[in-house]
Amino acid sequence: MATEAPVLDTAFPVGKFARVWNGEYRLHYHELNRPNGRPSLLFLHGSGPGASGYSNFRHNYPVMAEAGYHVIAVDYLGYGHSDKPRDFDYSTENQVSMLHELMQQLGVSQVIPVGNSLGGFYGHAYALTYPNEVPKIISMAPGGVHEESTRPFSPGLQAMVAAVAKGPQNFTRESFRELLKLIVKDERHLTDQVISERLPIAQSQPIEIYTRAIHRPVWERLHEIKVPVLAFWGYHDQFLSVNHAFIMQEKIEHCRVIISNQAGHWFMIEEAELFNSACLAFLAEQG
Question: Is 256 helix (H, G, I), strand (E, B) or coil?
Fold first, then answer.
């Protein structure tokens, strides 16, 4: 269950902690409202260094909460304020299992994943693992929709792999900003606040969250997703090409895609107003 948050020296706020994995690890999350008859919204961040539920979705989950939804913005194990063990297998199955355990502790029986990048990957995996508990899915440039190993890495992924290989603790403010420039179309979104929120977390992350991450692909199972899906893609995405949006539409029966030429990989940040309004309209739809 949730525990008292410790006092941390951090640039972004500390929320709540839950014990998972037989009580061995703490997952950190921000929560607004309580389960209320509607499906709860589970915000799932990407895999970039320094990522957290708060840093990815601070412009979004409060808006959904104001509309009456129970929202949770979680930090995966190895990210944000969650524990960061070095001897853990950071597989999709393990991370999704812990997310489900958190939902059970919070009394959530119906959940709509709202995932960016790796979070979109986890959202699809969650829906495939617990299909009776997921009535809809929202994704932003989700991973795992194409057999990436058969084609070269994108410029963004190449840069991230190279940066992480040097050791996350070796990030400087300058090198970190250069990496994040590939995530956005407009560098004005990389404010000092954004860098300050993410850099200390990035420097504290063990390299094992990358070297011991096993992301078994879901592209061969996407056709099994029968619930409505709303996907967003930035036309200027340098991490996961906008072409993947059309693969999703081909494989998922009820998939709607919104593409913006004003965004890169961080659609929910660069196009926050469009994202929020489209999500609320999608969530309000019946059937």
Answer: strand
